[in-house]
Amino acid sequence: MTFSDFKLNPKLLKNISAHNYIHPTKIQAQVIAPILEGRDIIGQAATGSGKTAAFLIPIINALLNDPAKKCLVVAPTRELVKQIQTEFRLFAQNTFINDVLIVGGASYSTQIRLLKRNHQFIIATPGRLIDLYKRQNVILEDFDIIVLDEVDQMLDMGFIHDVKLIISKLKSTRQSLFFSATMASKIKEIANSLLRNPVTFELTQQVAVKNVDQNVVKVDSSKGKIETLHELLIKTEFQRVLVFSRTKRGADEVALALRKKGHKADALHGNKSLGQRTKILSMFKRDEIDILVATDVASRGIDVPDISHVINYDEPATYMDYIHRIGRTGRIGKKGCALTFI
Asked: Where is the Helicase ATP-binding domain (predicted)?
């Protein structure tokens, strides 16, 4: 199967081909056609599966074919929302579909100004979206397509009331696309309130991380964790590395200790401003830093190609946190390695 089999708008198909997308991933092959048909979707999928393109491609096709349509995508973190916008612009290049990014930590006045111009596509975090809705700068009833991405993380971060409020204000004739890595009872409750006769699919966690070699590293108490990490990072196979810390302070301390040992490292966490986080991610992508030390929440939406290793410097709190962490490597068919310190 190729993307041309979906009978997409020629402008969209040209952009897909220009960026060397030829064969759809498993999730893309499953959901693009039903979304094109206007069906609701409920999907259980982990990171690294090609999920974002799976919903963006048919949505852009719908917006091209009907310029009066509008789409709203809601995701839990600024990084994930920014990553979705980047991928959207890749596929929507030269189509004149305007997008607006709505996130906390950025200027209200700039976002309000952008909302006043003609736009078909909004990508937002829940908190700022609700703020702008209450100020009457966003009309939720206008949207024909709604995407809720990484719903499990939105609930973990305390956005359940915001999500329910957003859903309650949407038009009844909308098309709804719902993605979550887990399907706990609260998530099913939200899904049932949002969806009508949905197409259901599941991409198992085993499939999502099948390209990741997973091992543990026993830390020698005489060396300590920092020295153990340093000895790993000086090996040539450690090219672009994502290190996970449980706390913001811990991430800063690990990054500082690595810099003192000569590594190009920085920390990414919620205490950094949006501008700082964007700059750090850009430096990581450009190899100006080789090692990114991140917390779980801040890592949402990190879409950096060719991460050779994920290192769990601190053990994750839950199994799903572990799956999300190691899913940052071994993406889209490439091999990766995940190491957990014990």
From this structure: 32-201
**CA-to-CA distance for 201 and 198, rounded, in angstroms?**
10
**Partners of residue 201 on adjacent β-strands:** 43
Burial class (CB in 10 A: 0-12, 13-18, 19+), 38: exposed
**Residues 117 and 230 both lie in one domain:** no
Task: Residue count of the chain, please give it.
Answer: 342
What residues make up the domain containing 25? 3-205
103 plus 38 within the same structural domain? yes
Q: State whether 195 and 228 are in the same domain.
A: no
pLDDT tens by residue, 232-245: 999 988 989 999 99
Per-residue CA distances from 99 to 57, 95, 142, 198, 226 (Å)? 15, 11, 15, 27, 43
**Comparing 44 with 295, which gets the higher pLDDT?**
295
- For residues 147 and 245, state if they share a domain: no
* Amino acid 46: pLDDT: 62
Q: What is the CATH number of the domain that holds 112?
A: 3.40.50.300
| Whole-number Å distance between alpha carbons of 102 and 110 | 10
What does the pLDDT look like over 253-306, one tens digit per residue?
Answer: 999 999 999 999 999 988 888 788 888 988 998 899 999 999 987 676 677 878
